[in-house]
Amino acid sequence: MGFQPGTQCDLNTECASPLVCRLGYCRLECRSQRDCGAGLTCVRDSDGLGACQLPAETDCTLDSDCPEPLVCRDRQCTNACEDDRDCPPGSVCGEDESGAFGCRDEAASDCQINSDCPELLVCAVDHRCRVECRVSRDCPTELICGDWLEPPRCVGPEAGRPDAGMDASVEAGMDAAPLDSGMDSGMDAGPVDSGMDAGPLDSGALPSAAAGIDNLVAGFGHNCGALTASDLRCWGDDSNSQLGDSMTSSRPTPFALSLTGVQRLAAGNGHSCAATSGGLFCWGDNRRGQVGVGSGASVVAPPTAVSGVGAIMDLAAGRDHTCALTAARVLCWGANDRGQLGDGSATDRGAPTAVVGLSAVPVALAARGNHTCALMPAGTVQCWGDNRFGQLGNGATATSPVSRPVNVVGLTGIIGITAGGGFTCALNGSGKVSCWGDGSFGSFGDGTSGLRTSPGATVLLSGVTQVAGGVRHACALTDAGKVFCWGDNAASQLGRPAGAPFSSSTPLEVTGVGAPLEVNAGQSHSCVRLSGGFRCWGTNTLGQLGDGSRTISTSPVNVSWP
Length: 562
What we know:
Layout: E1 19-22, E2 25-28, E3 42-44, E4 50-52, E5 71-73, E6 76-78, E7 91-95, E8 101-105, E9 121-123, E10 129-131, E11 144-146, E12 153-155, H1 162-171, E13 188-189, E14 216-218, E15 222-228, E16 231-237, E17 250-256, E18 262-267, E19 271-276, E20 279-285, E21 299-306, E22 314-317, E23 321-325, E24 330-334, E25 349-354, E26 364-368, E27 371-375, E28 381-387, E29 398-407, E30 414-419, E31 423-428, E32 433-438, E33 451-452, E34 464-469, E35 473-478, E36 483-488, E37 503-510, E38 518-521, E39 525-529, E40 534-538, E41 553-558
Antiparallel strand pairs: 1-2, 3-4, 5-6, 7-8, 9-10, 11-12, 13-30, 14-15, 15-16, 16-17, 18-19, 19-20, 20-21, 22-23, 23-24, 24-25, 26-27, 27-28, 28-29, 30-31, 31-32, 32-33, 34-35, 35-36, 36-37, 38-39, 39-40, 40-41
């Protein structure tokens, strides 16, 4: 019989007071969002009369999943709109990931401080306006009450408690500050426990893993490296001041930056970042907001502080975006046209924005090109962003952005990840590497090519301790101290004469690397870190090799480090 919320109706008299008949169901009448309970939205019928949305109407895939005149936007039934005036009080008109507009709760609004939010809402830890709360039952569905915050407010479960995040790190066998992940977090994430002994570092060394992973990053055409926490230098392409100065050309020898207390590094296509004991600093190309200081300046130099991040456990940079891992969440900013920020939208962000939908707080990040991946505490991997080549590993390809994390299928026991331009690789605890995505240049390393939408056969190597993805090639460091590379060799980035071979789908050993502690790969060059310096090989037109010349080299040359 009638008289219950959710009962079908044609007239108000078919519903028990104070319920009214709206959109074919008995509902609680509303004038604004505050009239509806947690998890419900004030929607309007064709006559403009408001009623609270029913829980069963929340999820949808197509417009036909919703009662007329509601439409499906961001997987929720809501009102169609052209601007905020079309929406019920308490909601705003916003664009979803498909480009269609619909009304959404003001609690979905971006914010930096509480006064950015409507009355009764506060700015939560994920920089979204949220309901203030006492316990989780005060929050909308899928949110929890962050009672450790001041004031307490509803947040996503991925935020977690600060102490829970640290416990998870310890349980994963990681040191808390910084994480002993063994990651090259600028472009790749190496093993959690690589088993390599770098020897004692001097008192000024970066506080990274024993293997020293995270002291060297390669961008598209530039590199940044640190031998100690107060000796950070960058070299190569400087067309967007990505070396940290105000030049717009290139430098064939390292440029010394004034940052101290350096802990993590990241390098994108035309920007760079360093997490230090005093905060996060980024510089270079900011046309998509990837430096994280707003969208006002197209180029940012020298290194400039990024606010709203906090203590950083890992750092990664893709083509035009940046991501940071904290003890409680993942924040990303910059280009988002392929969903690479993981915030559920396709809107560029000039300031850090929380990734939504992660199953837990990750232990490491990796980015390159237009996609991002996270290594989870259970040894699995989640990815988001561009998936046109299957680089997200979820068994499918997508022409539209994948703007929320999806699970890489068939992976367990993973201890390290790396992202290439259109491919991704994962390292397991047995020292084997599996790659997927675009293998047209041989980037799978297993003798095959083509496209692969999920992890397949492993790279023809064993005893791998770290893997690094470039744009179209990859390199690996083994427990025997050897370096192997595979994929594109058009500019000798595999350590072979250019075009001989043009590419290799199986790993080729690079000779003359010395005793490497770390390996990384850019667009058409590769580098290693030694105990007292760096060596690079491949193209050198922009000074990527750092030896003072602009001559291509098929074998490693010493980076000039006076």
